[in-house]
Design a protein that fits this description.
Largest sheet: none
Order of helices and strands: HHHHHHHHHHHH
Structural class: mainly alpha
Distance between the termini: 116 Å
Number of helices: 12
Strand content: under 5%
Helix content: over 70%
Number of strands: 0
Length: 253
């Protein structure tokens, strides 16, 4: 019996040693997975090596274990690369993802605003410029961009407010030609443009004599328009277009 126990103990020890050896061979500690280095991505984008940069940055961005800071750097770098090569949608996507990770990046809000502007989305551009300024009120590019866009939106709003309205008060329209202009948005816009162009031409006249001559020309056009409307062969729209073209030629536009 004692001999059997000794044999069993020896077998157990052998088994334990075998398990320990196997354990040592496979390793109980998790094998360290080397992290992808962000440096090649940053270097390639800085050198504007598109194919190399896209591959290097994708390796960083697609790595689930990448550090947040490195991920943001790679997204910003690749976004800037896409922007330089007019891949606007891809650049916006990378900037947007970077901003989700760190919403305090004033430079990236401004950069994305400029990309929205390229796409023609002025409201979104203004929002991003404004966001950049809320983070950094002294951000020079964002200030300039926001100011320019605010003026542009104001101008568009003013144009929309007068769209389809002539230069005169339709409530006081008495002539048939005036009522025709009031009843047609295209003619109303033409009338307003003629009035504005004539005013600009007079304002930019070299002297009083030239200004008077320009006003007489406008008065003669109005008189011909009033007299000609309704007569066979008279084309009001054509006459107004020709007058606007004449004025645009006069004032350099």
């Amino acid at each position: 019996m004692r001999s059997f126990l000794i044999q069993l103990s020896g077998a157990g020890l052998l088994c334990a040693l075998s398990l320990a050896a196997a354990h040592a061979a496979t390793g109980s500690e998790p094998v360290a997975v080397p992290q992808v280095d962000v440096a090649p991505c940053l270097a390639a984008t800085a050198a504007d090596e598109v194919d190399k940069a896209v591959t290097a940055c994708a390796a960083v961005i697609d790595d689930e274990k990448i550090a947040k800071e490195d991920l943001i750097k790679a997204l910003i770098a690749r976004g800037a690369l896409y922007a330089r090569h007019d891949q606007v949608d891809r650049a916006i996507a990378d900037d947007s993802r970077a901003l989700l990770l760190d919403p305090a990046l004033a430079d990236i809000f401004n950069a994305r605003g400029e990309l929205w502007l390229k796409k023609g989305d002025k409201p979104k551009a203004v929002q991003d410029f404004g966001a950049a300024l809320r983070i950094d009120p002294n951000h020079e590019k964002a200030k300039a961009n926001h100011k320019a866009m605010a003026r542009e939106l104001e101008r568009i709003g003013a144009q929309m407010a007068v769209a389809g309205k002539p230069s005169f008060n339709c409530a006081r329209a008495r002539r048939a030609v005036e009522r025709a202009i009031c009843g047609n948005r295209e003619l109303a816009d033409l009338d307003r443009e003629i009035f504005a162009s004539n005013a600009r031409a007079i304002r930019e006249a070299r002297n009083a004599g030239e200004a008077k001559a320009l006003q007489r020309e406008q008065d003669d056009f109005i008189a011909r328009r009033n007299a000609g409307y309704g007569r066979p062969g008279y084309d009001l729209k054509k006459a107004m277009q020709e007058r606007l073209q004449r004025l645009n030629g006069v004032d350099g536009y």
